[in-house]
Amino acid sequence: MRRIRHGFTLIELLVVISIIAILMAIMMPALQRVKTQAQEMRCRANLKQYGLVQTMYLDDSDGRYPSAWRSLVRTEAPVSGYQRYCRWHDPRYPADGPLWNYMPQSEVNLCPTFAVLAKSEGQRHPSHVATNPIVPYYSYSMNSYLGAKSGDAGGSAATDSTGRGGVYKLSEITRSRAEVFFFAEENMWPRPGNSNVLNDNALCPDGRDWFGTFHGAKRGDWNGGTINAVFVDAHVESVKSGLQVAPNGTADYSTADFGRYEKFGWPHRLPPK
After folding, report:
1. Confidence (pTM)
2. How confident is the model over 68-107, as pLDDT tens digits?
3. Residue 194's beta-bridge partner residues?
4. Measured between alpha carbons, how far is residue 259 from residues 13, 48, 196, 242, 243 in Å?
5. What is the mean pLDDT of residues 26-32?
6. Is the confidence at residue 129, as pLDDT, over 90?
């Protein structure tokens, strides 16, 4: 006797496909969150390495920081006429700054989240040159108050009315080392109140530069999130910029240090005057 084989009916197939589609719709956001969290964990691990690099460099340099402006790359313009805002995404001119030699792997210098965003947002930076490749190879910037003082060649963060400003050496920092950042992340695009974005190695927290906003931000509106920073005491934490965007689209400085500075930049115990 021949055994009769029954196949799936069209309705049964449609039901199975519908169930799979529903499960995928449920699982995809969760998988995306896991992926995003993994990228941020990698970013924090990178900055942990920067904390170790700080210790090694200072040990070899009598406690003196390199200039923030020339810490990863020695110049913004590797060739005459070069557009300085393209420096971070143009690997034709390899990094040659003093801290770069202390990095165990080049991947340590690039946040995975930043690298993904660069594919869609990289061209948004000021004065982008379309012929320059967008292949980011660093995404972290050094606190410009470290390693330079006002009047130094190459510039530094401004001083207050008492003449206090940047410091050359670790021993000159009088604020808690857990409250002064060493390296942090910047945005690649401008936002209200911040037209100076990632280009050089220096994050000037005196009102010229500000922390980035892209970790945990809503897709399509990258100005509402946080970034990661490594501090002078080598701990890493997620921080929110002191510059936010008000509901009316203007700059909001209500949470900025001293009403005008990015948080955790000022290296002195007493506030600026």
Report:
1. 0.86
2. 999 999 888 899 999 999 999 999 998 899 999 898 788 8
3. 191
4. 63, 29, 19, 9, 10
5. 60
6. yes
Average pLDDT of the residues in 237-249? 95
Who contacts 21 (Cβ-Cβ below 8 Å, separation ≥6)?
none
Distance (Å, rounded) from C-alpha 273 to C-alpha 266? 12
Is the pLDDT at 30 greater than 60? The verdict is: no
Angle at 82 between CA 78 and CA 84, to 5 degrees: 85
Tokens of 26: 């449920």
Average pLDDT, the chain: 89
